Amino acid sequence: PKVDLLDTPGIIPLKQEDQNKAYKLAYVDSIGENAYDIEAVAALFLKDFDKIYPNLLKDYYKLEDMELSVENIALKRNWIVQGGRPDTKRCSQNILNDFRTGRLGRITLDKNE
Question: The whole model's pTM is what?
């Protein structure tokens, strides 16, 4: 009567030795956003995703002749902060949310591994 049984499948270690796996955990929201820089993770996500699915993101975000980057996606969506700079924080959150909610399609991050 004084014992609590907790089922905790999938416990993630506090420190990840393999940074590639750590980034993938951040992409899928298995690591809290306080543990990483969302703008850096979104930029790396764009790079990694484009290797696996070339041009899918450029088409999705309608970048045509623009380079695939958080800044260009923010500019294309007209997300601007004071001073005319792209709102990279808002854009980063939206990019990862588009992936996490399936808006980018049914895809895998381990296609070439």
Answer: 0.81
